[in-house]
Each structure stands twice: as structure tokens, then as C-alpha cells.
Amino acid sequence: MKALVYHGAGVKSWEDVARPEILSDTDAVVRVDTTTICGTDLHILKGDVPAVTDGRIIGHEAVGTVEEVGTGVKNVRVGDRVLVSCVSACGVCRFCRESRYGQCLGGGGWILGNEIDGTQAEYVRVPFADNSTYPVPAGVSDDELLMLSDILPTGYEVGVLNGQIRPGDVVAVVGAGPIGLSAISGARLFSPSHVIAIDLASSRLDAAKRFGADLVVNNGEQDPRDVVMELTGGLGVDVAIEAVGVPATFELAADLIRPGGRVANIGVHGKPATLHLERLWTRDVTIVTGLVDTYSTPTLLRLLTSRQINASRFVTHHFPFDEFLQAYDVFAHADKTGALKVVLSREA
Fold it and tell me: Phi/psi of residue 81, each to 5°?
């Protein structure tokens, strides 16, 4: 089969590899019908995730068709069409019993495209298939459903819920890429008074307006601190969500927060960031981090099927599998291409 293979920082190729096989009785092998590229994959390609080694098939998001199941799989059958979650869950360890599947101790967590071969391939082995896949609901397109593999639950759980957004809050989202837009969409469910989107790319700020931002700031042209302080009477925002994963954006989020506020970090960081405790130690600020657990996926599925959220608007580009390298180029240069999520399919 063909797959997108990582060969060290900055090197990837679409190449022939062995088709995956069942290794555990709880595995399924899924034919990948649709997949996508995540900002985390770009971090991997920069060498920011050292657990990913030469020869790894990357990717952790897919919709596909079950081709084979292990003898211990009870709820997933050959021929089923499923959403593959970015997080796998053994279902029995301490953290899985607390619905903290991202911290799974039993061989799950974020392993696809990280510790084991991932979804940017024609086939993928999915561990703990009963706990790590969801049936494709009627009336929902693959494009829409694919957004529930990772970005929608990540923005919702790690940004919105960890940030404890409440009605009337002023929320700043630093970074208006797909994860930041997901956080904006999720924040709107809690009726904030203002959502402020901050980014350097005009195309992404335009997208932020479409996704529900009340105010957008290009921090290459304006200082977001001035804008926030004017809006809030000098207090700062109630919740600041960091959705980029570089030191400057984390430090900006911390600068924007009011006394007693919450900074929710979503971004994947590959370098140290400075925590300015000399400014923060008296301000009762809470900083939360997290890896998505995907406990919200059933809720988001209900919101999607009832049309309370619009997932299709994330998708800006389509490619067939054999144009994976071109798709990466488009996604990596989103400031020029306007890309949000690029979707790759067997038949684009």
C-alpha cells in the first residue's frame, strides 16, 4: 500500500509500505477513505515531537471502512464505516476510567502517527477498536465527520472546557488556524460577550469572523494588548486560549489575562516558553494545559447531526491520495493559500 512516511526533520515521502495486520485481538484494520493533515503533523516534520522516529507513517485522523477485526472486537464489524479517533483508549486503566483517554496507561493515548503507524495511508491498524472508533451517522459527510477525529474535540475540550468559558466572558483566541477556529466555534456555545481572534494572517482572521469572532486583531499591525485593555477597561480577558504552539503566542496569551482569569494552552510546543511569574504571581491566574481526551466526541456528534455545529466550513481544499505532497505544501503555506483543513480521499 501507499503511505506518507516521516524520514526525519523536514523529510517525508509518499511511498510503498507493508499493509498493516492485526497484532492484538482488540485491533481493527481500517481502509482509509478520507484523511487530513493536522498542525501537529507540521510540528512532527519540524522535529518537535521526538517520539516520532524515521520510518513512521504519520497522521491521526480518518474516516474509513473496517476491513478486518481481531477476535476480541465486539462492537465493530467488517464493512462498518467508522470515524477513527485521534486518541486510542484501552478502557480499563486508571485514566481511561476517569475519561482521560489521552493519558491512557494501557497502550493507548495519542499513539496513531506518533508511537505507531498512523492514518495518512491507504490502510491503518486501529488498537482498541471498540473504544477508538465511532459509527458513521446517516446524513453526515466524510468531510464533516473527519473534523471530529481531532480538531473539534481538541478545541472544545482543551480550550473551551479547560478554560471554563461562561456566559458573558471576554475570550481571546491567539491563533486562528483550524484549532483556534475550533475553539472559537466551541466558545460560541457558551454565549461569551466577545470573542477576540488574534493572528498574523489576514486570511485566517477573515475565517475567524466567519466562525464567530466579534473582533479580529492582526498582531503584525496592532498590539493586541492595547486592543484588549481598551475593550475590557484595563482588566484583560476572562479566558485566553493559546492555539499556535510557539513561545511568543503563549507569552501573549498570558499577557492578555485579567486577575483571576484562565489561560488554556492548546498549542503543541517544541521549544521552551517563558512564564513571567514576576508579573503573574499576584494575579490569581490559572494556566491549564492538556492533550485531547476525546470524551466530548459523542456530544459533538450529536451537535453535528442536529446541525448545531457546522464542521464542513473547515474544509478548504481536496486532494486525491497520490497528491499528498502537494496537499502538505498547500497546508504548510496557509498564509498564502488560505488553507484551513485539506482533505485527502481515495477519490477526491
Answer: -95, 130
Instruction: Give the model's pLDDT for residue 348.
Output: 54
Residues 6+ apart with CB under 8 A from 215: 194, 195, 196, 197, 227, 231
- Distance CA(147)–CA(230), nearest Å, equals 35
Shared-domain flag, residues 42 and 161: no
Nearest to 185 by CA among 282, 309, 88: 309
The verdict on 194 and 247 lying in the same domain is yes
**Statement to judge: residues 190 and 269 lie in one domain:** yes
Tens of pLDDT, residue by residue over 24-56, are 999 999 999 999 999 999 999 999 899 999 999
Measure the CA–CA gap between 185 and 199, rounded to whole angstroms. 16
Give the distance from CA 99 to its chain's centroid. Answer: 18
Which DSSP string corresponds to 174-201?
A: E--SHHHHHHHHHHHTT--SEEEEEES-
Structural domains of the chain, count: 2
Domain co-membership, 111 together with 174: no
pTM here?
Answer: 0.95
- Asked if 166 and 42 sit in the same domain, the reply is no
> The domain spanning residue 193 has which CATH number?
3.40.50.720
